[in-house]
Design goal:
The protein has two domains: about 90 residues, Rossmann fold (3-Layer(aba) Sandwich), CATH 3.40.50; about 130 residues, Rossmann fold (3-Layer(aba) Sandwich). Helix content is about 40%, strand content about 15%. It is built from ten helices and eleven strands.
């Protein structure tokens, strides 16, 4: 069993990006600029956005954090998004999800200009991804592809089972794993909460990508020997015995499933760090695109 170490690979990617940014600075060029909008005071979101800002500093990007109160109206948020769309200094930006109930998430996603949509959520970018065109791939799926590629995990002709059909992870992964090229060329089965007899499907899988958000869902008896496991789930479980009052766990019963797996991602330290690294990579791509159009 080999650990797919997202912390190590994300650090490698950040070092590569920093080297490129250092060259830009030497040439006197503008460095990439990533902005993030956060609405409200959700603890997990604040932690995540803070991590993104620190990562920007580490690689030499400029970053702007825009915090808006939880009472912000949809109109106010859309106005702020349009300001960033029009700001030539900003290469890419994200709107941190989830948003308060009074704001329609779909309207917000549609409002972000596709050329600055480094999250890869806009229908234009999603459609290009589905058609195998050059675009921004959503950061978490992008990170999973990068892990598979850097560890040289064979995907061609394999049976990949994706658990979960979210627009952020499950659905894009089902498309990307079936595309021509590497990683890809696998036969994909997309499963979800309504799938019947899911164990019959997962026991046939060579690769399982689980993005369900149910702690410990995937058990050892649900997988075959030498399976590749990508655990995207990340859930805070309350535990008074822990210093923080909770612990972080994934969708996979790591202790038992890891004994059968050939490769497996840990939680934390697997897919999570890769998401931020690939957001930076998308921002670098956005900056290159803006520069080529000038």
């Amino acid at each position: 069993m080999k650990i797919l170490d997202g912390r190590k690979i994300s650090n490698d990617i950040k070092a590569e990006i920093k080297a490129e940014v250092d060259k830009m600075k030497e040439r006197g060029e503008k460095v990439p600029h990533l902005a993030a909008i956060i609405v409200g005071n959700d603890g997990a979101s604040l932690t995540y956005v803070g991590s993104k800002v620190r990562s920007c500093e580490r690689v030499g990007f400029e970053s702007t954090l825009i915090q808006m109160p939880s009472t912000t109206s949809e109109l106010e948020l859309l106005k702020k998004i349009e300001e960033l769309n029009q700001n030539d200094d900003i290469d890419g930006f994200i709107v941190q999800l989830p948003l308060p109930d009074q704001i329609d998430t779909q309207e917000v996603i549609m409002a972000v200009h596709p050329d600055k949509d480094v999250d890869g959520f806009h229908p234009t970018n999603f459609g290009k991804m589905a058609l195998d065109m050059s675009t921004f791939i959503p950061a978490t799926p992008f990170g999973i592809l990068e892990l598979l590629e850097r560890y040289q995990v064979e995907t061609q002709g394999k049976h990949t089972v994706v658990i979960g059909r979210s627009h952020i992870v499950g659905r894009p992964m089902s498309i990307l794993m079936g595309r021509k090229g590497f990683p890809g060329n696998s036969t994909v089965t997309l499963t979800h909460s309504r799938t019947k007899n899911i164990s019959q499907i997962t026991t046939q899988a060579d690769i399982i990508i689980s993005a369900l958000g149910v702690p410990g869902f995937l058990k050892a008896e649900m997988v075959k020997d030498d399976v590749v496991i990508i655990d995207v789930g990340i859930t805070r479980v309350a535990d008074d015995s822990k210093e923080k009052g909770y612990y972080i766990t994934g969708d996979v019963d790591f202790e038992n499933v890891s004994k059968k797996a050939s490769y497996i991602t840990p939680v934390p330290g697997g897919v999570g760090p890769m998401t931020i690294a690939m957001l930076l990579k998308n921002t670098l791509l956005a900056r290159e695109r803006h520069r080529s159009r000038k």
